[in-house]
Amino acid sequence: ENENRIRRLLLNSARPTPATDDTLTKDQKAKKLKTVYEKLSCEGFTDHHIELALSALKECATFESALDWLCLNLPGNELPLKFSSGSSFHYTEGGSVGVILNQQDNSTPSVDPSITTKDQALESPV
């Protein structure tokens, strides 16, 4: 079934391919698309979404470009969990922000030690 979809994608690709792909045979292109398809499937994307991405990217599709396309073009609720739960988790938590440094002209920076927040332990790298 996946092989038929890949063949259909190859037949429907009308966009000219980059110079690097000109040297690939039809079988090599099919193998490349199949590999990309399988990797995206293993990441949790549906067949329909993978086909949308590969159709948009045509024969120049790589795993990375297809992944980028999917993450940029699909609504967050349609992405696999590991791609949709990233930063949106932090937006729903709420929290407080305090000024810990206020530098005036010609002065050295100082931190007010009396300012602490309960959320300091929850800070996560961006």
TrEMBL record:
Keyword list, A-Z: ATP-binding, Helicase, Hydrolase, Nucleotide-binding
A single GO molecular function term of this UniProt record: helicase activity
Polar residues: compositionally biased ranges: 101-119
The ATP-dependent RNA helicase DHX29-like UBA domain, residue ranges: 32-84
Residue ranges that the Swiss-Prot or TrEMBL entry lists as coiled coil: none
Region Disordered, annotated ranges: 101-126
Protein name: ATP-dependent RNA helicase DHX29-like
Organism: Trifolium medium
